[in-house]
Design a protein that fits this description.
By secondary structure, this protein is mainly alpha-helical. Helix content is 73%, strand content 6%. The protein has 15 helices and three strands. It has a three-stranded antiparallel sheet with strand order 2-1-3. Helix 10 runs antiparallel to helix 11, helix 12 crosses helix 13 and helix 13 packs antiparallel against helix 14. It is flat, with a radius of gyration of 30 Å.
């Protein structure tokens, strides 16, 4: 059974240590029994307690994002560096969070830590939010007594990873939105505007240009069968989402295809290398053994092709091969990366070398995203010109033809 992490707000009446009566106070807990136990621990005698009624039009529960986890990592690292105890840090960060779901998650972790769990054990109970990499690094920090240092590294890693994700999404969101709007406008023109021109053309008494006839036929089809088009698009989105979540072969094919797309593929390749380097650097600096680190790194690459390559590298390293040689065998990592890893292995500073590689490729990704944005603008104009401009030309061709005949 999944662990319940949601906190419930209770309203209670009671008496404090001095005998003073308290009315309509609030407390949050997982259950009424836990709320009563906590109040007794604080020295209150509970007279009446009940769950606080929820507003009729309460706000929709906000999901916990990877950005929330990144911000939490930085906040917790800062609190621990300032000397604030772990439990108190969770209390401060949790109660101060704007997202109620995140607040409930953090306070539930705090309760587990108070109950005797280590932080790594408490996080391991929540794999939906804290991946194996996060938990392994926290465990290493607790064992070595440098939890605040490791949390600082985790925070830096999460922030840089989120930064790359946001930049890629930002570069792709604008062109996709414009193209979708262009298709919607085209559909509206075909369904509502083109029929008006069709009625006008019937009075010409002459054959229409082939291009105009094609557009009119498209308009007739859209007017009659538009629901089929919407159904096909909806079914395609559903099938894509279904196989994306459940089919590894489909994801393998999709990731391999994406890596071959001009510019976009280059961004994804360099992004995967940056994430590989940043993750392995962070784990190496934490003292995690290379074979164990590579297993966690495989899931952080963001691409199945790279994930499978890293697992193959792990097998080679486990048999005693050097990491540089294992990277050569998978043929995905550029020569520069291999050379930096070789230098790191020779000098015993592989974490520092991989950090430099990550910095370099993160900057490369930034530059490529800027270039992609510049390339997308003329491409968008071409698509808009073909869709909307094509319809306008098709509608005015008969008028131009009639004008020429009159002239």
């Amino acid at each position: 059974m999944a662990e319940q992490t949601e906190q419930i707000d209770f309203i209670w009446d009671g008496i404090d240590k001095s005998g003073k009566k308290l009315l309509k106070r609030e407390i949050s807990a997982k259950s009424e029994a836990i709320a009563k136990a906590e109040l007794r621990r604080q020295g209150y005698r509970v007279i009446k307690i009940k769950a606080k009624p929820k507003p009729l039009f309460s706000a929709r529960v906000k999901a916990i994002t990877s950005g929330d986890i990144a911000v939490f990592s930085r906040q917790l690292a800062t609190m621990l560096k300032a000397g604030v105890p772990l439990v108190q840090s969770f209390d401060i960060v949790g109660k101060g969070h704007e997202n109620p779901s995140m607040q409930a998650l953090l306070l539930s972790i705090k309760a587990d830590v108070e109950g005797g769990d280590t932080l790594a054990e408490a996080l391991n109970k929540r794999p939906l939010y804290f991946d194996e990499l996060f938990c392994n690094l926290v465990e290493s920090g607790e064992q070595a007594g440098v939890l605040e240092t490791l949390l600082d590294k985790i925070a830096t890693y999460k922030e840089k990873t989120e930064s790359i994700k946001k930049k890629i999404k930002k570069a792709l969101t604008y062109p996709i939105a414009v193209i979708v709007v262009a298709f919607i406008v085209t559909a509206i023109l075909l369904i509502f505007v083109v029929p008006v021109f069709e009625d006008l053309f019937k009075g010409f008494g002459a054959d229409l240009p082939a291009f105009t006839k094609m557009v009119i036929n498209m308009s007739k089809w859209m007017q009659e069968w538009w629901w089929i088009l919407i159904g096909v698009i909806g079914a395609a989105i559903y099938v894509f989402g279904y196989f994306k979540k459940r089919s590894r072969p489909f994801n393998h094919f999709l990731d391999k295809l994406l890596l071959k797309i001009p510019v976009v593929g280059m961004i994804l390749n360099k992004s995967a290398i940056a994430r590989f380097s940043r993750t392995l650097s962070t784990m190496s600096a934490a003292g995690v053994p290379l074979v164990e680190a590579l297993e966690s790194v495989s899931g952080a690459c963001g691409n199945i092709i790279y994930a499978e390559a890293v697992l193959k590298m792990r097998e080679d390293v486990a048999t005693g091969q050097r990491l540089q040689y294992a990277m050569q065998q998978v043929s995905l990592f550029p020569h520069m990366v291999q050379q930096m890893v070789a230098i790191g292995e020779e000098s015993g500073s592989i974490d520092a070398m991989l950090s430099k590689v990550a910095d370099f490729y993160e900057e490369e990704v930034d530059n490529l995203i800027d270039n992609l944005s510049s390339l997308m603008e003329p491409l968008i104009m071409v698509i808009l010109g073909i869709l909307v401009g094509g319809l306008i030309v098709a509608m005015y061709l008969p008028i131009f033809k009639m004008g020429a005949a009159v002239g």
